[in-house]
Here is the input.
Amino acid sequence: MLKLMLEKCKELNEEKVLLTCDKENIASAKTIIANGGILENEVTDKVKLTKSGVIQRYWIYL
Here is the structure.
């Protein structure tokens, strides 16, 4: 699904895409990395959307 979304972003002439996931969501992190994701940073989840309390931010350059 991510690969298809990235193809659509290319069609829309996007240069890069920001993806986020919970630090404990290893499957999502692996999927993002496998599609070219580069970890930018980890931020504290101030609105409690995650279990771990940490959000990982990845950029994929298209």
